[in-house]
Amino acid sequence: MGCAHGKCCNRDSSTSDEDSGHYQRGIRPYKNKDGLTQRSLELVHVPSHNFTLQYSSLTQNGYYPDTTDRENQDSFCIKTQIQGNPNVHFFGVFDGHGQYGAQCSNFVKDKLVEILSSDPTLLDDPLKAFNSAFLATNSELRDSEIDDALSGTTAITVLVVGDTLYVANVGDSRAVIAVKDGDRILAEDLSVDQTPFRKDEYDRVKLFGARVLSVDQVEGLKDPDIQHWGDEESHGGDPPRLWVPNGMYPGTAFTRSVGDSTAEKIGVIAVPEISIVRFTPSHLFFVVASDGVFEFLSSQTVVNMAAAYKDPNDACAAIAGDSYKRWLELENRTDDITIIIVQIKGLSNSGVGTTDSEVHSRPCQIGGSMNQSTAIVPPLMHQTLESDMG
Questions:
Q1: Residue 122 burial by CB count (10 A; 0-12/13-18/19+): exposed, middle or buried?
Q2: Has residue 74 been placed in a domain?
Q3: pTM of the model
Q4: Known Gene3D superfamilies for this protein (predicted)?
């Protein structure tokens, strides 16, 4: 997960034209098949609003020169017709980390969708169901035979309910949606990475007693009193991490995850941030991917590449290939890479009677006070739901 010291510098070496939102043609599909698993193209109809989701996925083992037989710690889950309902579909990517990261990501992949599928309140209140499922999955992992003291997984998950998209995220994987704007296709992030670079997340973990320091700081090479690391795009490969007050562990570069019971004592939580989007005809497709994809590729670049292909199989392969190539150009290894691309086909009259930014939802409260904020990111409205753990 991430590079040796977490998120890296030179994340995106693309040109300004790539980030302009215009189509990019002539991208060659991925040819490296070692450790690669790719699903065939699949379709599912959403009869409530008469459109189709066409999707594909790909997962690729990372390359680690010192441990060439290292297993892929990423996993993904696609489950259509949740609770037998043809209008409800689930897509998720899980990026494991630590010694037992693969076991954690696979456990969470199965358990989270199982709990969602068995929740009778899912369709009445998807927000509450999503929160409950993450917290219950975290408890189930804690009670399992898997040692999650220093292992866990991030999770970026998307639930399609009719013409509405619910995106629940813990960690630093990402979901992004493509929006047609004239002759351009723009990338709109559906999630925000949860790391100490974010002031709100930094402040929250500090209240739990976490030391927030880069590796150089914790090893005494830089002044630990300097609590500013720039931003994720330019920090130089040594990001701020979380440490217990009197030890050099666990060193997580994210502030939310499922598992990581040691890090939970210093503020790492399994409470998801949830965004809600109502589909409009301008929405073309969405991408769900691990940070192995987004380490060196911006959201806009990923959307540009995906838009260049009619077949999401080819788009997955091209994006994975470019991610893999950039890792090897900038590091001596690659991360595991997992991507799901879901194209939205035939959507014409969804959202009638609403504006692009209107979202109808009922916030919920889990185990304490709730801090709810709403931010409008044109043309989408993201409603973030977060529960205090104290």
A1: buried
A2: yes
A3: 0.83
A4: PPM-type phosphatase domain
